[in-house]
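In the design runs reported in the main text, the only information available to the sequence generator was the tokenized backbone. The following block is the verbatim input for one such run; it is reproduced so that readers can re-run the procedure and compare outputs position by position.
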């Protein structure tokens, strides 16, 4: 089934690439990425009858909901934007006349990236019942607590930022209320927190390699796709206002702000 899901991801990304080529808005790739993960998880939980039923239900329902919510949030943001996301506008300028080929390769890469981050769920859902420790309900309960906290935190952070940006009087200002008072990127923090769910569940099945995923997501968020670009754009757009915010607010882990 892994091969079929890889093909499904590729088809979805190619369709989105055609759409982005027509309307010159590549931000749809973020929506497609989270949609691919949601589909991969739900379809596997339904069709692969290997893992214990509570594991299948937990991953199929709650992990599926995680990426459905993320997809819906990104789609709302995409539809609300008047122009192309700055990240992709910069990529378009950098690629120049090769932009169509460049973005085709980028969309294909995102299909592979969706598979990469689907591996923890695949590993858990394809581990036979006899390979799970009898104590797996305890690990499942711990994972559930973490997932609930992460889901609530990221949902609240996203909604707070969305409402702030909807107000015209906030243009040029930095969101520094609610969860954003304690972290400059609370949404990224709770996204990272969510990736601890799968290695904790994996402890009950001897899947220790899944601990690479919180590390991998931290590297992506902290050094590659998340924080560096967000900070650069915020400084460019909001200048001293954001610099003051940087000086008093934790970058990642929520913490009491400096006076």
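Verbatim output:
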């Amino acid at each position: 089934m892994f091969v079929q899901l890889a093909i499904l991801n590729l088809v979805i990304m190619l369709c989105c690439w055609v759409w982005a080529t027509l309307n010159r808005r590549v931000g749809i790739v973020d929506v497609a990425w989270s949609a691919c993960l949601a589909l991969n998880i739900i379809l596997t939980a339904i069709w692969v009858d290997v893992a214990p039923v509570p594991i299948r239900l937990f991953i199929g329902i709650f992990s599926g909901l995680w990426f459905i919510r993320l997809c819906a949030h990104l789609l709302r943001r995409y539809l609300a934007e008047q122009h192309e996301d700055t990240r992709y506008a910069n990529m378009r300028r950098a690629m120049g006349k090769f932009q169509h080929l460049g973005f085709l390769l980028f969309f294909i890469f995102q299909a592979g990236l969706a598979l990469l981050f689907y591996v923890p769920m695949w590993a858990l859902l394809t581990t036979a019942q006899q390979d799970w420790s009898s104590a797996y309900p305890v690990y499942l309960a711990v994972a559930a607590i973490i997932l609930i906290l992460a889901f609530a935190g990221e949902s609240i952070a996203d909604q707070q930022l969305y409402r702030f940006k909807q107000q015209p009087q906030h243009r040029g200002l930095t969101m520094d209320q609610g969860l954003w008072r304690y972290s400059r990127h609370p949404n990224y923090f709770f996204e990272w927190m969510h990736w601890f769910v799968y290695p904790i569940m994996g402890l009950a099945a001897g899947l220790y390699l899944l601990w690479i995923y919180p590390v991998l997501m931290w590297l992506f968020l902290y050094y590659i796709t998340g924080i560096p670009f967000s900070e650069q754009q915020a400084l460019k757009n909001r200048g001293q206002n954001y610099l003051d915010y940087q000086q008093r607010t934790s970058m990642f882990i929520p913490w009491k702000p400096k006076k």
